[in-house]
Design goal:
alpha/beta; methyltransferase; 34% helix; TIM Barrel; single chain; 2 domains; rRNA binding; 366 residues; 12 strands; rSAM; two-stranded antiparallel sheet; disulfide bond; tRNA binding; elongated
């Protein structure tokens, strides 16, 4: 969820995210995707149609996968023709690859021509979608493939929701889980992300408790998220066991002291009652030693949290390597011995460039 661009301060990043230039492009025709049934009902009434057509429109958008109002067969033909140019807000499939583990990576072309990534991750009991919240990412994390093409703008609510519908339709299976771990920093696009979460919950029918939002952390933004009282899981990317190591890997961390970040996470738990998950990418010889695990455990002792270890996925021109299985096991064992809940997550789809940021970068290079 990071990119390799010119370093800016956290305040600069926040200002960029709030600026018009980084917002989704505005048009005279607002896409309908992302609207609630009440909003859609108000819209059809304003068009001179009976209120019950709002429910019909809602079903066709969120459960029938309609891409044009002209194709809604239950609407009067004459009215369909009148509103045919009103955009639903669906993207076009630009590229699709399937990895041997059945993970599917999609490149989606948006209305303005920009390309974003999303990933469908199937398992025996669930279908998870990894969604993007920005085109590129301005956080400049030193190990991340995302954003090699630069940061362009925030995604609009309908562009986030569309990713989930695309995967659901392609798999012909209901999506059960959503992770905001694709392109971008979600907390730099809070309004659209929160609106998308509510839409995916209320309109698509996915439990908020089955959603995870991943962030590197920005001053004030975790508190802002807590105010929405969502039932999602917050996943905070630490990637370092102390401030100096974290600054080396996440340049924006120099403006957000390690302890201040942890204090904000504790307050998030107090306000929401939801556990925080800490993500920690393991880089060989950098942050994967026993002393790092001990230091991390000391910071997290007594915290209602969970540590998700992620062995590094090599990227082109990589400066880092994945640790050996022995080092991974020792790190896990050390955290467990210090009574820290821990698991290891191996990114899927690496064989087909389906790990975050890789497919878009490879296609852009062609």
């Amino acid at each position: 969820m990071c990119c390799r661009v010119a370093l800016v301060t956290c305040l600069d990043v926040a200002a960029m995210a709030d600026a018009t230039l980084t917002s989704a492009p505005t048009t005279s025709l607002t896409p309908l995707l992302g609207a609630s049934q009440r909003q859609l009902t108000d819209w059809v009434i304003a068009q001179g149609q009976p209120a019950y057509r709002g429910g019909q429109l809602h079903r066709w958008i969120y459960h029938q996968g309609i891409r044009s109002l002209a194709d809604i067969s239950v609407f009067p033909k004459a009215w369909r023709q009148q509103v045919a140019d009103i955009p639903i807000g669906r993207s076009q499939l630009h590229h699709r690859v399937t990895a041997p583990d059945d993970t599917v990576k999609y490149l989606l072309r948006l209305a303005d021509g920009h390309i974003i990534e999303t990933v469908g991750i199937p398992s025996a009991q669930r279908l998870t979608v990894c969604v993007s919240s920005q085109i590129g990412c301005p956080m400049a994390c030193d190990f991340c493939a995302t954003g090699k093409g630069g940061f362009l703008r925030n995604l609009a609510t309908h562009e986030i929701v569309d990713q989930v519908l695309t995967v659901q339709e392609d798999f012909q299976q209901r999506v059960s889980h959503i992770v905001f771990m694709g392109m971008g920093e979600p907390l730099l696009n809070v309004d659209a992300v929160v609106a998308a979460i509510r839409c995916l919950n209320q309109d698509v029918g996915i439990s908020q408790r089955a959603m995870t939002l991943s962030t590197v952390g920005l001053p004030g933004r975790i508190q802002q998220l807590a105010q929405h009282q969502l039932q999602i899981t917050l996943a905070v990317s630490l990637h370092g066991s102390n401030q100096s190591l974290r600054e080396r890997l996440i340049p924006s961390a120099r403006h957000y002291p390690f302890q201040a970040l942890l204090d904000d996470c504790r307050e998030y738990v107090n306000q929401t009652g939801r556990r925080v998950s800490f993500e920690y990418i393991l880089l060989a010889g950098v942050n994967d030693r026993v002393n790092h695990a001990i230091e991390l455990a000391e910071h997290l002792r007594g915290f209602q949290s969970h540590v998700n270890l992620i062995p590094y996925n090599p990227i082109d021109e990589a400066d880092y390597q994945r640790p050996s299985h022995r080092h991974i096991r020792r790190f896990v064992q050390t955290l467990a011995e210090h009574h820290i809940a821990v698991s290891v997550r191996y990114s899927r789809g690496l064989e087909k460039s389906a790990a975050c940021g890789q497919l878009r970068a490879s296609q852009s290079a062609k």
